[in-house]
TrEMBL record:
Protein name, per record: Putative hydrolase of the HAD superfamily
GO molecular function: 5'-nucleotidase activity
Keyword Hydrolase: yes
PANTHER family for this protein: PTHR47478, PYRIMIDINE 5'-NUCLEOTIDASE YJJG
InterPro entries given in the database record: HAD-like_sf, HAD-SF_hydro_IA, HAD-SF_hydro_IA_YjjG/PynA, HAD_2, HAD_sf, PGP-like_dom2, Pyrimidine_5'-ntase_YjjG
Keyword annotations: Hydrolase
Pfam family name, one: HAD_2
SUPFAM superfamilies linked to this entry: HAD-like (SSF56784)
Family annotation (NCBIfam families): HAD-SF-IA-v1, YjjG_YfnB
Top-level taxonomic group: Bacteria
Keyword Hydrolase included in the entry's annotation: yes
Gene3D superfamilies: HAD superfamily/HAD-like, Putative phosphatase, domain 2
Amino acid sequence: MKYIKHIFFDLDHTLWDFDKNAALAFEIILKEYNISIPVDQFTKIYNPINQKLWKLYQVNEITHLELRYARLKETFDALEYEVSDELIHAISDKFIDNLILNNFLIEGTIEILDYLKSKYQLHIITNGFAEVQDLKMKNSGLITYFQTITNSELAGYKKPHQNIFEFALSAAKATKEDSIMIGDSYEADVVGALEFGMKAIYFNENNFLVENDIIQIQKLTELKNIL
């Protein structure tokens, strides 16, 4: 790692605690629309559905709008709670508005960024929607740590496509040899970066089984032992 100068982080589920912030947003929304489903029951169903659909979105099998609709439609269907398409679209819009009201970060985020910022140039590569991701970065205070922010809308490609990594390195004036990617998505962040020719670290918080030669951590602060 002695040649590393640039660290590229994913945002959601890596630094920004999407699941916690989403639960708080849904808690407000379910009350507002008088939907009698406990928020923990709702998010238990919603979270894996959302992750499944994001994987399809990453490889262009569904659109942004299809993702936003389907993740709610499939959740309500699984809960056997009947809602109209009109209400699903209204909740979808309200969710984006409420999501950025809370900005809890993954444990250890600020500690590790403070540790890394004097040693490396820090950057973001995210598949999230540009306007929402920018607001997350600003509202959470993360933006002050990063020299560049590459999102898939700006780059025109999503991780794991190699072009988004090429775009991000160009914006950062970095090379494959002096860069490393850190993220929670094995396919998008780790495999994508490795196939592009960058080093990668898998933020494997849930200890999923992966290939033995993949560098992985379960807590962000473990990066102090690597970088």
